From TrEMBL:
The keyword Zinc does not apply. PROSITE patterns: PROKAR_LIPOPROTEIN. InterPro entries: Bact_Solute-Bind_Prot2, MglB-like_PBP1, Peripla_BP_I, SBP_2_dom. This is D-galactose/methyl-galactoside binding periplasmic protein MglB. Its main location: other.
Length: 349
């Protein structure tokens, strides 16, 4: 009787082990063929960030079909709130996402986010808003995708210099041999805003063109704030304004709206932006916007996705196109009336 009972116990153990092993294999297969990527955005209504999001969705769907794998890509909008973003990241961690992609509301919050993700062993891909190097080095599973801000500033300066050389008699309205300008800056503390502001002016100055700043202020990347700022400056400086330099296209388009809504100008000031959003390319094509600098949202989205996919699948991240250590920084393209047709056609695809 004892031998019989022992045989039953032994059989039950074997059967139970088989079930557990089978479940474990099933879970492993499921994990292997499913990837969960959480993306938290500082503001989903930001035009450029919205473009990155759309491209991410397209790239994800394409990869699903190519690799026969399920990719769950979830976006959440922090609406400019650090508290919201912190809660969103906590939720992603609690729900065991494979990768978390972060468009920071506040760069100073990066360390806290990294420490949370490290404790949960969930890799992070920051994008568009760059944490300081010290924070990125807190863990070996943290990456950043952005653009070469210094290059965008240089190209923006080139557009203004070229216009000065071609149409100086129209641009230099008061014939004082220098440029009177106003500057619309992005969000305070954003690394790209600081670099674009500083180096665009430096490059024009280094070329030998004298500059006079009439006004500068932050419009936080937003069109409505740019309209308000530009309206104020038009009232204060009027026809003295010769050039409007904007850290992004959305603010540049806001400035254009103000300029086109008044008749105070004997010659409208030239306006130059950065990002290459479709509306800006259309404005360049019409001759309203003098130029823009394309920041390739599609290329940045591809880098964000490729890093995320590689990390989730255990692949070598160093094989991601353009990666340099923990960074992918894409290049820019200068756009004026002369070449806008090419890029406008691409934006319509």
């Amino acid at each position: 009787m004892k031998k019989y009972k022992g045989f039953i116990v032994f059989t039950a153990l074997i059967f139970g082990t088989s079930i557990i092993s089978g479940c474990s294999r099933e879970f492993s297969e499921k994990k292997k063929n499913e990837i969960k990527i959480g993306v938290t955005l500082y503001r989903q209504d930001d035009t450029f960030i919205s473009s990155i999001s759309s491209y991410l969705e397209d790239i994800s769907k394409e990869k699903e079909q190519q690799e026969n794998i399920k990719i769950q890509l979830d976006f959440v909008d922090a609406k400019g709130s650090t508290t919201n973003q912190g809660n969103q990241i906590d939720k992603f961690i609690k729900q065991d996402y494979d990768i978390i992609c972060v468009n920071l509301v506040d760069r100073t919050a990066a360390a806290t986010i990294i420490d949370k993700a490290k404790n949960a062993n969930i890799p992070l891909v920051f994008f568009n808003r760059e944490p300081v190097e010290e924070d990125l080095n807190r863990w070996n599973k943290v990456y950043y995708v952005g653009a070469q801000a210094r290059q965008s500033a240089r190209m923006q300066a080139e557009i203004i210099i070229e216009e000065w050389n071609k149409n100086k008699s129209k641009l230099d309205k008061n014939k004082d041999n220098k440029i009177q300008y106003v500057m619309l800056e992005g969000e305070p503390g954003h690394q790209d805003a600081s670099i674009r502001t500083e180096y665009c002016i430096k490059d024009i100055d280094n070329y030998g063109i004298e500059l006079e700043k009439l006004a500068d202020d932050s419009a936080n990347w937003q069109s409505d704030q740019a309209v308000n700022k530009m309206n104020q400056w038009i009232q204060e400086y009027g026809d003295e304004i010769e050039v409007v330099i904007s850290n992004n296209d959305v603010m540049a388009l806001g400035a254009l709206h103000s300029i086109n809504s008044t008749d105070v100008f004997t010659e409208k000031p030239i306006v130059v932006g950065i990002d290459g959003v479709k509306e800006a390319l259309e404005a360049v094509n019409k001759g309203d916007l003098t130029g823009t600098v394309i920041s390739d949202a599609k290329l940045q989205a591809k880098a964000i996705f490729d890093i995320s996919y590689s990390l989730a699948k255990g692949l070598d991240v160093n094989n991601v196109q353009g990666i340099n250590g923990k960074y992918v920084k894409t290049q820019h393209t200068k756009v004026t009336k002369e070449n806008v047709d090419i890029y406008l056609a691409d934006s319509n695809k």
